[in-house]
Amino acid sequence: MNWFPLFCDLRHKTVLLVGGGAVAERKARLLLKAGADVRVCATHFSSPFYEWQQAGKLTLREARFSPEHLDGCWLAIAATDSHEVNQQVSDYASARQMFCNVVDAPAQASAIMPSVVDRSPLMIAISSAGDAPVMARLLREKIEALLPQHLGKVAAWAGALRPRVKSTFNEAGQRRRFWEKLFHHDRLAQTLANGDDKQAEKLTEALFNEPLAQQGEVVLVGAGPGDAGLLTLKGLQQIQQADVVVYDRLVSEEVLELVRRDAERIFVGKRAGYHCVPQEAINQILLEQAGQGKRVVRLKGGDPFIFGRGAEELEALSGSGIPFSVVPGITAASGCSAYSGIPLTHRDYAQSVRLVTGHVQKNGELDWQNLAAERQTLVFYMGLTQAAEIQRQLLAHGMSGGMPVALVENGTSTRQRVVAGQLSELAELATQAQSPSLIIIGRVVALREPLRWF
Ligand code: SAH
């Protein structure tokens, strides 16, 4: 270990920053965030420095560096573009046994500043000791993306609870289980993120009162239409924490790759026209698994609340006392639209968009009159087997046979295929497409060629 990692309290401690340009500006921002008394010495200052000075946040010394600037300081940071000046600052600081950071030059420095992911009070610092700063930055971005913004609030909340947890639970194991429950408590995190402390107190009280045996829960997660890059960050966090993942055929292999390796996977495949596992049986699986105290993720293609029967699954859970939540996903219409260059709305051609099921059951006759109206885009889910009927009804209700249509098959995946034509050919086009396919009907379809990028 060449460098000793250390977090230090700089509040109300004087720090000398040498330099007044853009690089020094970044350091000044960090120092101010940490509550340091910042003394800046330089021959020129960029404008933010004057603003900070006016706001009383720091003091400026318009001068070349000289050793007495270090008087009373705890730390020095050399951020000029002159190697010699930086070296001088470093040398004088060392002579006084004071740590000195030299920006981008660890060889000249006695302290280095890491890349940080700040979820105060939680702080993650990453350093490559100057060998691979870009690698450290990329790693920081990855961690940044993985950790929810509200993590800091949860950590601060936990900090305040420590004495109570200590006095409530005698055993270390009990305390660990309590903390695990608290840190996995999604609704508590969300409540804190919303700044609703009253509700957070209620949820915390409930946590103290419930038995420590793990309580199961179900999270409906939208997996998006195929491309794993379209999974939300929240969805990713959920599938990486799950004990069990219940998924169906619409969830892509790519997304399944991201599920925690040792999570149990239950396939309840569904395909157009038939269900491998009836809905009631799926509901039962969710109840049973969560009832055993497991964290169950019900992973669904697209968005769980758009033709995903998500509501039915939640209804089945709602009477059971098992907590549940929903993480939305990118629905096939959005994904297919973006990846095929067909905008769903456009000021000149479509003022509204309608997501319609092509799988109409006996009690769900569609309002064809309205669907055939101009200046809107129709997106039919599960429409492949009904394409001839859709064509017949729309023509019968006055839509032009020349209305552009497109079928997007396996949208957003590497196997995406688009078959385009006009309404009068829809039934024929549908015979060339495989499930899952989306049918898009409207003038916007004609924009596809100029906007295509995928
Ligand atoms: N909840 C899903 C929809 C489920 S219904 C969502 O929000 O996207 C199933 C229908 O969605 C399929 O019949 C098909 O019409 C459409 N679909 C889902 N994924 C698709 C994809 N990758 N490409 C094209 N259509 C898709």
Walkthrough of the structure:
The protein is of the alpha/beta class. It has 4 domains: 120 residues, Rossmann fold, CATH 3.40.50.720; 59 residues, Sirohaem synthase, dimerisation domain (Helicase, Ruva Protein, domain 3); 114 residues, Tetrapyrrole methylase, N-terminal domain (Cobalt-precorrin-4 Transmethylase, domain 1), CATH 3.40.1010; 119 residues, Methyltransferase, Cobalt-precorrin-4 Transmethylase, Domain 2. The chain has 17 helices and 19 strands. The strands form 5 sheets. A 5-stranded parallel β-sheet has the order 3-2-1-4-5, sandwiched between helices. The chain has a 5-stranded parallel β-sheet with strand order 10-9-13-8-14, sandwiched between helices. The longest helix is centred in the middle third of the chain and has 18 residues. It is globular and about 90 Å long. The model has no long low-confidence stretch (mean pLDDT 92). The structure holds S-adenosyl-L-homocysteine. S-adenosyl-L-homocysteine (SAH) binds next to helix 13 and strand 19. Its EC number is 2.1.1.107, 1.3.1.76, 4.99.1.4. In the N-terminal section; belongs to the precorrin-2 dehydrogenase / sirohydrochlorin ferrochelatase family.
